[in-house]
Amino acid sequence: VTHSIPACIGSLTINSKQLDNESPVSIFAVNKCYVTVQDGTFFDGSGFAALVREGYKVRSDVNITLEFRTTAVHGVLLGVSAKVDAIGLEIVNGKVLFHVNNGAGRITATYEPRGTNSLCDGKWHKLQANKSKHRISLIIDGNSVQIDNPYIQSTSADTNNPIYVGGYPADVKQNCLTSRSSFNGCLRNLVLTRGQQTELFDFSRAFDLRGVFPHSCPGAEH
């Protein structure tokens, strides 16, 4: 077993002596247990999760779905980036942006909530970002934005890089993200689909996890 248990552990005793888990000698990716908890992964706004160490190939078609909950109006959701070719999802000023660069230039689909509706209201919102060759679309809570790419000859995002979720390291360049703000909130049900290949990502199996707490999200009132 090479990944941590997604659970709360308390009242641990060894040889009848209770361990003091309030002042550990060292600690990594361990958070408190919440009185009210929801399914999801909590991002505390300081870090990121890095998935697929060997590299994710976006290529011509990819469909990304996830659910998010936040009260912050800025934050990186997801990025995969080579030097030029890249995709990126982020929240900027309360809008969701989906950027794609197939090598000829960046295009962006922007979803802006109407009226007083907010995507940063601490409630769950469903996101779907689709890249089909040179076309991209963004669907938030069933509302769709579609963009035609002027670079119609360029159809493939030739990446072979990790997927960064919720942020990215300072020494990593992301060609399709404009924000450096780490996501502060909860994510769940991250699925990437290419053709017949569908992957549901488990954050506890990330190869690098900073400020991210898999499988438990504090209840909305906390």
Describe this protein's structure.
It is a single chain. This protein has 222 residues and is mainly beta. It has a single domain, classed as Jelly Rolls, CATH 2.60.120.200. The protein is 0% helix and 48% strand. The protein has no helices and 17 strands. The strands form three sheets. Strands 4, 5, 6, 7, 8, 9, 10, 11, 12, 13, 14, 15 and 16 form a 13-stranded antiparallel sheet that branches. The two termini are 32 Å apart. The mean pLDDT is 92. InterPro entries: ConA-like_dom_sf, Laminin_G, Neurexin-related_CASP. It holds the Pfam family Laminin_G_1.
Major β-sheet annotation: 13 strands, antiparallel
The portion of residues assigned to helices is under 10%
CATH class: Mainly Beta
CATH architecture grouping: Sandwich
Tertiary shape: globular
Kindly state the mean pLDDT as a whole number?
A: 92
Integer count of domains: 1
CATH topology tier name: Jelly Rolls
Organism: Syrrhaptes paradoxus
Domain Laminin G: 38-217
InterPro entries: ConA-like_dom_sf (IPR013320), Laminin_G (IPR001791), Neurexin-related_CASP (IPR050372)
Pfam family, one: Laminin_G_1
